[in-house]
Design the sequence.
């Protein structure tokens, strides 16, 4: 069965993108390379990064695409390839990947969710910013360096103590 993606032009999408090795710390150890790869792609194929968190082996982000564009797959392919080019080939590459000229740094696919409304947008931004706490890397979202939460605090959209109470820790963001 072929996976079908929702592709609306000018829409906002939440993404989860994973490294192939889920025990890796490659993304935070080389965060500047990842950011540069995203900057280059944004220059050639504009989009807005509304929120983002970079974890050691995965990232979550929320993008808004231009009004006449729905091609997030090309953007992700270019970001992944641009990041991967910085590393010598040392990872295990399956025969399937070799035959397609692919590296083994990233998982092939990514998870996307079409944002439905303002509440859905806010819920996913909260999920992004709370993710380092959820995974046990920090006690407070503001303590994670690789997060757009700092941009939200600077813009006074949220306070630096956002999500620091017990009630917030019990929220599930709709997860099982």
Sequence:
């Amino acid at each position: 069965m072929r996976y079908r993606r929702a592709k609306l032009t000018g829409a906002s999408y939440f993404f989860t993108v994973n490294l192939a090795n889920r025990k890796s710390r490659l993304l935070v150890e080389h965060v500047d390379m990842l950011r540069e790869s995203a900057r280059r792609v944004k220059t050639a194929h504009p989009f807005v990064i509304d929120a983002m968190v970079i974890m050691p082996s995965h990232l979550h982000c929320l993008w808004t695409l231009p009004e006449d564009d729905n091609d997030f797959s090309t953007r992700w392919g270019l970001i992944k390839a641009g990041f991967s080019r910085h590393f010598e080939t040392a990872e295990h590459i399956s025969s399937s990947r070799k035959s397609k000229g692919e590296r083994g740094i990233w998982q092939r696919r990514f998870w996307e969710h079409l944002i439905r409304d303002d509440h859905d947008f806010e819920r996913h931004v909260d999920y992004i910013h709370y993710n380092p706490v959820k995974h046990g890397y920090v006690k407070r979202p503001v303590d994670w360096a690789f997060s757009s939460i700092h941009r939200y605090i600077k813009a006074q959209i949220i306070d630096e103590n956002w999500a620091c109470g017990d009630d917030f820790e019990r929220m599930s963001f709709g997860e099982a």
User: Anything to note?
Assistant: Residues 118-134 form the longest helix (17 residues). The beta strands are 12-18, 48-54, 58-64, 111-114.
